[in-house]
Design goal:
The chain is built from seven helices and 14 strands. The chain is of the alpha+beta class. A hairpin with a 5-residue loop joins strand 12 and strand 13. The structure holds biotin.
């Protein structure tokens, strides 16, 4: 495990992708000054001032493809929620991998692959987490957002938080690669705030409404619509 600090960068995910051959497996690239952050589903992602920790974990697993790679972001979501709990807050996971506290977003996650035909060069697991952002800075974000400082009432030491998080992440990383979503399913479901609630999930230009009845063993969300038809969703956004 290693850390690589950048004073300023357009996007830690982009940096990690562009420097994939120089960065060792299990290196976390991080900054508090990201100027062109990338979000899920091709969106832009803005930090809430320099209190937002922007980081990308560089992973170079030995197998070319494993089913567990597709739910690594959900594993990271659980680890982030567990680390936040060490600070006395009660996070909720919004499927697939947003982390909320008091119904406000505190962390977003974006995974990107670096591959050449037939060979996986690396997996980049990016996350942006509002540690010490102030209320006014969070007002510029397009959705209700909060920070750990606001929720726990005192400033957080960012490097200490990052080190705790990475220790927690790598503690079960190999086991997660071998066992997949099943390993963390109970931990995920116990923090999934939308179980048995009627929700609408947007998938690009379509949407599905139904009751969230559970997750399957790959982390796909199962919705039951008003005609009792089951929908198994692999991607999307809960509205
Ligand atoms: C989302 O909520 O849409 C995902 C946001 C992911 C943001 C992080 S910040 C660090 C890393 N670098 C990026 O450009 N994006 C991710």
């Amino acid at each position: 495990m290693a850390f690589f600090y950048l004073e300023e960068v357009d996007s830690t995910n982009m940096y990690a992708k562009e420097h994939i051959y120089e960065l060792e497996d299990k290196t976390t690239v991080y900054t508090f000054n990201q100027t062109a952050g990338r979000g899920r589903l091709d969106r832009k992602w803005n930090c809430a001032g320099d209190g937002t920790l922007c980081a990308s974990i560089v992973l170079k697993p030995s197998s070319n493809m494993k089913i567990s790679y597709s739910s690594l972001t959900m594993y990271l979501g659980v680890v982030i929620a567990e680390t936040l709990e060490e600070y006395g807050v009660h996070p909720v996971i919004k499927w697939p991998n947003d982390v909320l506290v008091n119904s406000k977003k505190i962390c977003g996650i974006l995974a990107e692959l670096v591959s050449y035909p037939g060979k996986l060069e690396g997996l980049i697991l990016g996350f942006g987490i509002n540690l010490n952002s102030e209320k006014e800075e969070l007002e510029n974000i397009s959705q209700p957002a909060t920070s750990l400082k606001i929720e726990c009432g005192k400033p957080v030491e960012p490097k200490e938080f990052l080190e705790k998080l990475m220790d927690n992440f790598f503690e079960r990383y190999q086991e997660f690669l071998d066992k997949g979503f099943d390993l963390i399913k109970d931990e995920y479901v116990s923090r999934f705030g939308f179980l048995n609630k009627e929700i609408t999930v947007k998938i690009f230009d379509k949407s599905v409404t139904g009751v969230a009845v559970g997750l399957n063993n790959l982390g796909a969300l199962i919705l039951l619509d008003s005609d009792n038809k089951e929908h198994t969703l692999l991607i999307g956004d809960i509205l």
